[in-house]
Amino acid sequence: MESHRTSKTRRPLPLALQAAGGTLAACLLLAAAPAMAETVVSGQSDTILRIGRNSEKKLEVPAYEYLRLGILSNDSYGGTLSANFGGWGRVNLDDRSNRDRKSYESDLQYGYISYQAAKNNIVATAGRQFVTEGVASDRLDGIYLRSDIAAGFAASAFAGNPVISEPNYQGGDVIFGGRVSHSMYKYYTVGVSALRSSGETKNNREELGGDFWFHPAKELDVTGRSTFNALTNNWMEHAYAVSLVPNDMFRVSADVSKINYKDYFAGQTTSVFNFSLPGRGIDPNEELTAVGGVVALNPTKELSVSVDMKHYDYKVAQPANYYGAKLAYAKPESYSAGASIHRMDGKQNKLRYTEYRIYTAKEFHNADVSLDLIDVHYDSAVNGVRDAFTATVGGGYKFNEALRLGADIDYSKNPDYDNEVRALVKLTYAFDMKYAGEGRAK
Amino acid sequence: MRNGRFILLVVLSLLASLLYACASPSIARKHPEAVKGMPDCNECHSDSWGAMNHKAVDFYAKHKFYASQPNVCMGCHTQAFCSDCHAHKEEIKPSDKYKDNPARALPHRGDYLSQHKIDGRMNPASCVKCHGRQNNERCITCHR
């Protein structure tokens, strides 16, 4: 009965239209700017060139331009109006016979106008945006509204078109939802939220959830969320975490999560999460319970030593344990270094391996260098290879506060690639350093 | 019917908000102090904001809970920061884009082609937030 699965294809907006929309939004904002007390325009351009070979050993040289732009105006009432745009484009500079990728590609990651009022944490946003409200962690083309209400309550709502990457998979025509929360900021926030994504598709979603953040004392922080799938009528996920920090030098944290695969993966559009791929997709009968913990010591502000573990238990598959230790040193804008070792101990051969990592980065006056070594040693060879090893060397030079040129080269030898070498060159130009960047990837 | 009740609840909440006479100040639109590197919020904040200590070993795992306070995050971050990892369509993984900062907690370091087969079996739910309904162009080259 194919009629229930209308193969309506949503075509993404062409880059020119996306850019025109972003520019129009910016122009509208600038037109209103004279009435504003202050306007700041800032952003960042990252031009990236990658050089490497694909799985067929053909040379790939894609060039990317990432552009982020923010325009911000404060009004005389203390509110802030902003327009934000972020997107990228790519052209292939290699042989046109290379068919692995289209010769050009682009995307609008976000593009929205937002107003934040001086009172009540009122926010109104319109455009392509990423919404994180309880059960929602979704990108949509639409509107988002949020405000505090009386007596510690707050409410938010959003509605629009769900943004999905692959238009041939159907993610629904409309998504909407919201969250109502109550806070005593010194002690707690609790919220209930809902989301619905609907359309003539098999990937509709109806999710309800509750979340909380308790911090009754400085030393204790407890967070959690439970999500219910109203279409399958069962819990998708429970996830809870607690941190105990008796003093600045010592931290203990623990987390527990439970995921019911049949309910959790029901609304996903990526084919790997299908239930109908025997042996390759998701087993709908599976349930995962993961319990973990971390103990960390900070003898100084810069130094951290931690041990961590996580136990994975399944209803169908065999259990596994992941545990290890990490040493890290970080002095901002000067030096950082770290080392870690982790062991995965599972019942199956492919879940028995040891991970090693060592890294260091040093900043000189205007230059910086970094080194990162990662090795995964498998107990049993995969494709005849026992180690997946990657070494990365990087360096950069800052011409001034706005302009930086960086490059790195990495070498990999692993079960999928023999002696793979890739390089990346990145030129970063930041607009308007004085106002320290709305729109910049801080 | 269920939708109608839900929309009514949201509309009433927003209406009550508009009528809320005793307005309280919003959280600062922009963090008043410039922050360098990964901040330990406890250095200045003795209240609940201290829990946002970005240096904490469990902060990366817990940031999904704090993200339900987006106006707090927006004091320092824009959506550009989120989209580095939570991308719509992305061809460069975050750890490749920021190899000059190996101390930063970023997903998929090293050779992730081999490792993703293991992580995907261990906890496929960890893939979903970024690759469940978007950012899946690379996935479908093999997972058709």
Q: What secondary-structure arrangement, pairings included, does this model have?
A:
The complex is a heterodimer of chains A (442) and B (144).
Chain A lengths: L14 H18 L5 E16 L5 E2 L1 E13 L5 E13 L11 E13 L6 E11 L2 E13 L4 E10 L11 E11 L3 E11 L6 E13 L2 E10 L4 E14 L2 E11 H4 L22 E11 L5 E12 L5 E12 L3 E12 L5 E12 L3 E16 L2 E14 L4 E11 L6 E12 L11
Antiparallel strand pairs in A: 1-2, 1-3, 1-23, 3-4, 4-5, 5-6, 6-7, 7-8, 8-9, 9-10, 10-11, 11-12, 12-13, 13-14, 14-15, 15-16, 16-17, 17-18, 18-19, 19-20, 20-21, 21-22, 22-23
Chain B lengths: L1 H18 L39 H8 L3 H4 L5 H5 L10 H4 L14 H11 L2 H7 L5 H6 L2
What does this structure look like?
The complex is a heterodimer of chains A (442) and B (144). Chain A is mainly β. Chain A has helices at 15-32, 261-264, and strands at 38-53, 59-60, 62-74, 80-92, 104-116, 123-133, 136-148, 153-162, 174-184, 188-198, 205-217, 220-229, 234-247, 250-260, 287-297, 303-314, 320-331, 335-346, 352-363, 367-382, 385-398, 403-413, 420-431. Chain A has a 22-stranded antiparallel barrel. Mean pLDDT of chain A is 86; it is low at 1-17 and 436-442. With 144 residues, chain B is mainly α. In chain B, 44% of the residues lie in helices and 0% in strands. The longest helix of chain B has 18 residues, at 2-19. The two termini of chain B are 37 Å apart. The model of chain B has no long low-confidence stretch (mean pLDDT 82). The chains are: A mainly beta (442), B mainly alpha (144). At the A-B interface, strand 1, strand 3, strand 4, strand 5 and strand 6 of A face helix 1, helix 2, helix 4, helix 6 and helix 7 of B.
